[in-house]
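User: structure tokens for this one?
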Amino acid sequence: MSVRAMTVLEGSSESQPRKIVHVDMDAFYASVEQRDDPSLKGRPVVVAWRGARSVVCAASYEARQFGVRSAMPALRAERLCPQAIFLPPDFPRYKAVSVAVREIFSRHTDLIEPLSLDEAYLDVTTNKSGLPTATKVASRIREAIRQELNLTASAGVAPNKFLAKIASDWRKPDGLFVIQPHEVVEFLRDLPIGRIPGVGKVTEQSLLQAGIRTVGDVRQKQLPELEAVFGRFGQRLFRLAQGIDHSPVVPNRIRKQISAEDTFPADIPLRETEEALRKLAKKVWAASSANARRARTIVLKLKTAQFETLTRSMTPLAMPSTEEELAMAALSLFDRVEVQQDSLFRLVGVGLSNFQDEEDPPLFQPLLEACSVETA
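Assistant:
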């Protein structure tokens, strides 16, 4: 199937390509810390709790020069950069800055799809500020973030979300990169396959073993050939290789789950996780109280000392009406955890899922985390 035939088949409007901007704050958590404490400027800052089980939430670009990255164990970060300044994360402060950034976005469009505190998609095909191009919108947003918040952001401009996200990372930090519709094929041809969003290390290895190293290599494959090897992902890979992504920018995306989890300093028996579970239930209950939709399902998450993840869930006829009832319901799921009596656990989590509107009939099916790792 040709690219043109596929585009027509999927109902794309070739006459009016969309204008999508992806904005990604630069080393967001660490940059906020450096902004608020001038003594940290130019120094390697790592946002993380200290401890054997902690992971890096964010690293300043000065720390990244030593190989420190988000989601890395904090102990490894400390070995790579002994001179790094470790700061515990302050999520309420980061969220407040994120709200200010989003207010800047809203001056230009109401079609804003946040992905996290530090990044979002914007559809500016028609913008509120009357600027003639999406590039000018992105430039105006970046300038406002710099002038009003004393922070920097990188942005990508492209005809769809897939390309805009890649573009925003192209000239980080503090960069702007634009992919025009007529440049898509050439831009993608030599792009390493690992740069495609959603292609992790395991999938990348599978693609490399199949002789696919660049997006251009994917374009040499037929759709049935990709489907035979990669299943449904083969379909998505085929479309992305053509630069096709019709997914819209979705404001106010419905939250599927509210959860909280905690990693212990040392592995402990199941029953000793109760105190932590009760504290997590309190956090989840507080977060869920602000949600206009109600949950139907309670979820317990455990991770063993051997890193095996166990989840148990229940959908009661009547959901808990207090945080204590939520904690008790989660604790009751312990009885469904089949492990050896001497088993030890490194993590416990509590969640609410299967959210529905109040008027929906009953069905019979993370906001707060130990560390919310930023994306860039």
